[in-house]
Design goal:
Radius of gyration: 21 Å
Shape: globular
Largest sheet: none
Structural class: mainly alpha
CATH superfamily: Ribonucleotide Reductase, subunit A
Length: 359
């Protein structure tokens, strides 16, 4: 993707991370857990090619790239929004979509790097097997979001500094389970909720379909993290578990409070204090920020990081009710929806072939 698309020079935003990771070899090739090996088999069977599975010929409306109703915009109903003319609102929609998809893209590259690190550092051979399929999944996601930004939105934003800070922490930590926890559970859990919004509420067909297919992959990735950590965390000491829970709480507050897209408003010349004051209590943003944790909370509970500190934080954030959700049922639903999108795609192809033959 050409760096000319970025709103800031890439030289100011790219960075290198030093990581003291330890490479672990495992010679017990015949040992493995059935559930993880089954997930590995599914990972092999569910590979897809973004260049042939998606219809890249579809055009988008630059005035409303994702086709969201204005009511879903965080500024909707504010004096700031009401002062904008049609051109200003269209510009805000385009830059908002570009910022969101740019963070998806950068997060997917982070996932690509982290999953390659998991192959290197995790001690179990079945985990190495599955992680290898996730590496190609993440490469495909990077390719897909990059193409959508390049060909459709034609605009890109650098990585959000708070996402960068979280990736720094995850990549720099030498403990393999922190890579799982930070990437597979927290960052990808947050991404799944954001993907879900576009899949279910947007009206732009390519963005909907793209995210449905990515979610099918990501559901497996989160399940991989769940299975691995659910087996490992009961072996930790209280001190070690406390360290993981502290990391979870800090990361969740960071994701809730900092991923607000300030770069968009700054780039478009808005008054950041005025924007910040409004967004602090904007009803739609408050609900969206809660919804972002719908995949994280039940998974954190499932893997056993459910001490008083985590429960208090989630209660204070107003998201503890998500702990009642079943993470496996959420993953199964993502699989079903992706299969529905694929069935419609195949039906459209069959219909086009039939029409062609009749003509």
């Amino acid at each position: 993707m050409s760096t000319r698309m970025y709103t800031m020079p890439v030289e100011q935003t790219q960075w290198a991370v030093n990581s003291p990771a330890t490479t672990v070899f495992n010679w017990e090739y015949d040992e493995g857990r059935d559930k993880l090996l089954n997930l590995y088999e599914k990972g092999k069977n569910k590979q897809w090619n973004t260049n042939t599975r998606l219809d890249w010929s579809q055009e988008i409306d630059f005035n409303n790239p994702l086709g969201f109703p204005d009511e879903y915009n965080a500024l909707f109903g504010s004096d700031i929004w009401n002062k904008l003319d049609d051109k200003g609102k269209a510009e805000l929609r385009l830059h908002g979509a570009s910022w969101q998809f740019s963070q998806f893209l950068h997060g997917e590259q982070g996932a690509l790097i982290c999953t390659a690190k998991i192959v290197q550092t995790v001690p179990d051979i079945d985990s190495k097997f599955y992680a290898s399929t996730q590496v190609i999944d993440e490469a495909r996601h990077v390719e897909t979001y990059s193409r959508y930004l390049r060909e459709k939105l034609q605009l890109a934003y650098p990585i959000n500094p708070h996402l960068k800070a979280l990736l720094d922490d995850v990549i720099q930590d030498s403990r393999w389970d922190l890579t799982y926890l930070g990437m597979q559970i927290l960052i990808e859990g947050l991404a799944l909720a954001a993907f879900n919004t576009i899949r279910d509420l947007a009206t732009e067909p390519l963005a909907q379909t793209l995210n449905a297919y990515v979610m099918q992959d990501e559901a497996r990735h989160v399940a991989f993290g769940r299975m691995s950590l659910r087996d490992y965390y009961p072996q930790l000491s209280d001190k070690e578990r406390d360290e993981r829970e502290e990391f979870v709480v800090e990361a969740c507050y960071l994701m809730r409070d900092r991923f607000l897209g300030e770069e968009v408003y700054q780039n478009l010349g808005f008054n950041l204090k005025e924007i910040g004051d409004y967004l602090e209590n904007a009803p739609i943003l408050r609900e969206f920020r809660k919804m972002l944790f719908s995949r994280i909370v039940p998974t954190i509970k499932d893997i056993g990081l459910w001490g008083p500190r985590v429960q208090k934080a989630y209660s204070d954030m107003g998201i503890i009710d998500f702990s009642m959700l079943n993470p496996q049922e959420l993953s199964d639903h993502d699989e079903v929806v992706a299969e529905q999108f694929e069935a419609r795609r195949k039906a459209d192809i069959d219909s086009a072939v039939l029409v062609g033959s009749l003509n």
